[in-house]
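Fold Annotation — chain and its backbone
Next Lines — sequence and tokenised fold

***
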Amino acid sequence: MKKLLKKILNKIRKLLGLEAGLVLSGKLLIEAHKNIRDVDSLDKVEFKIFSQWGEDGIIQYLISRIAIPNKIFVEFGVEDYTESCTRFLLMNDNWSGLVMDSSKADIDFIKQDDIYWRYDLKAMHSFVTRDNINQLIRQNIKEKDIGLLVVDIDGNDYWIWEAIDAVRARIVMCEYNSIFGCEHYITVPYDEKFIRNKKHYSNLYYGASLPALCLLAEKKGYLFAGCNSSGNNAFFVRKDICALKPVDYKKGFVMSKFRESRARNNRLTYLGKADRIKAISDMEVFDLKSNKNVLVKDIFGLNS
């Protein structure tokens, strides 16, 4: 029933020309932003076309500042791809790409959408792990030097990006968990079967802190370019091809304000600020500095 409803809504959207209207809006926003140079904060170039937040605008700004010979993207964790950080690149800029998701129904939906024959898009059903990610990419992408890699799987994001060597994207967008703050180099311990809402009912236990991702980025040869204003996605650019000024991660850090916490019965509880970290205080995180697992309550001093 849900799959059928999605197909119907998608058809209605196309018949009404809503998708074409969105792309046109994006073109107008790109024109309005074309003279913006060297912003000190990425929120100044944000706009949303198909992305969840303002990532479409940020990506357009970055690709306007960086030479990208191979206009190819890889994105995983896309669901049915109606809301995505690469869909506008595909439709407006005629990029090619690979998208992956663990839901077969969502991948089937993408393959039945007109977008699948209109553009050079590959969609693959797979539960991504650090052991299979490179094979999945190499099966579909032959070039190593690609334009954009989007890592957003609400769990093992740090470990998956660490493992990727099949491509060396010029731009990387990776989700971070802002409730982990900007002081600690921490991530959830690796679990190849990690599913966010099953690992902890609150829906708040996932991913890595921004400092952890910046540390990994440095090891991989990337500089931190900033975060979106919603406080959930960080952007990194390869140092060897980039003239952008690096951003200090403490200055670039953004704390999210969206309130997506859940109770045990899966109802939204709307926790905010410090209450969110308290909700997962008994869970373990891996501290990259001490190289061991520690309890959230210990690392954040929540024992009292």
